[in-house]
Amino acid sequence: MKIGSTRKDYKLKKKIKIKNNNPIDTFDYWYKNATKLVAEPNAFCLSTIKDKAPESRMMLLKDYGDNFTFFTNILSNKGIELMENMNCNMNFWWKEIHQQVRISGISKLIKTDITKKYFYSRPKGSQIAAYLSNQSKRIASYETLIKKYKKIIKKYDNKKVPYPKSWVGFCVEPLKIEFWQGAEFRLHQRVEFIKEGNKWKKKLLAP
Ligand SMILES: Cc1cc2nc3c(=O)[nH]c(=O)nc-3n(C[C@H](O)[C@H](O)[C@H](O)COP(=O)(O)O)c2cc1C
C-alpha cells in the first residue's frame, strides 16, 4: 500500500527554545512543558546494539538530570545488549508539540539500593509482574503467565515481594543531545549539542 500522501503539516511557527549552553537545562524546560501537553512524555525509544545491528523498543524514563535513568531486566535482550555494548540512544517524540529529543550516550548500571527503593515504590501488581517475568524469554502461553501471576499475587498477599535480582536500573550519561522543533513546510529547526571534555558545543543543523 502506498502511503506517500499521508502527511501531517506542522503549523507551529514557534522559534526553537534553547535555554543556554547546557542541553540538560533545555531538556528540563522542554520536558516540563511536555508534561502539560503530551500524553506520555516520559516514553522514549531506546536503541541498543546487538552485534553490529541496532535494536529498538519503547521505554519509560524515570529520572533525569546529568544522567537519564530507566529500569528493566538485565537478562532481557536490551539488558544483555547494554552489558555488551554500553552505547545507546534514547529518542523522545512529543507529537502534540512537534518536538523530538535524541540523546546518545553511555549507559551504566545504577546502585542496587536506588533500584530497590524504586522497585518497592511501584504498585504490588507491577512488582509481581517483574518478579515472575523472565523478560524477553520464550513462554509457553499467555494463559500460563497469567495463571502464574494469580498464584504469586495470592502467595504474597500480606508479604513483601522478593526483590528480583535481575531487575536493574541503567543511567545514561549523555554525550550528544539534539533538539528538534517541527515547523511549516518541513523547515524544521534542529540544535545539536556535543560534549567535548566537560564542555557542550552547540551547532544548528539543516532539517
Ligand atoms: C510505552 C512503553 C513503555 C515501556 N517501558 C518499559 C520500561 O520502562 N522498561 C522495560 O523493561 N520495558 C518497557 N516496555 C516494554 C519494552 O518496549 C520491551 O517490550 C521489553 O522491555 C523487552 O524488550 P527487549 O526484548 O528488547 O529487551 C515499554 C513498552 C512501551 C510500549
Residue share in helix: 25-40%
Task: Characterize the overall form.
Answer: globular
Number of strands: 9
Order of helices and strands: HEEEEHEEHHHEEE
Query: Tell me, what is the CATH class of the domain at 23-122 and 165-205?
Result: Mainly Beta
CATH topology of the domain at 23-122 and 165-205: Pnp Oxidase, Chain A
Tell me which CATH architecture of the domain at 23-122 and 165-205 applies here. Roll
Supply the CATH superfamily name of the domain at 23-122 and 165-205.
Electron Transport, Fmn-binding Protein, Chain A
Beta-strand portion reads: 35-45%
Count of DSSP H/I helices:
5
Biggest sheet layout:
9 strands, antiparallel
Mean pLDDT: 95
Low-confidence stretches: none
Q: Give Rg in angstroms.
A: 20 Å
Description:
This protein is an alpha+beta fold and 207 residues long. It has a domain at 23-122 and 165-205: Pnp Oxidase, Chain A, CATH 2.30.110.10. Helices cover 27% and strands 35% of the residues. It contains 5 helices and 9 strands; from the N terminus they run αββββαββαααβββ. Strands 1, 2, 3, 4, 5, 6, 7, 8 and 9 form a 9-stranded antiparallel β-sheet that branches. α4 packs across α5. It is globular and about 55 Å long. The model has no long low-confidence stretch (mean pLDDT 95). Bound molecules: flavin mononucleotide. The site of flavin mononucleotide (FMN) has 14 residues, from β2, β4 and α2.
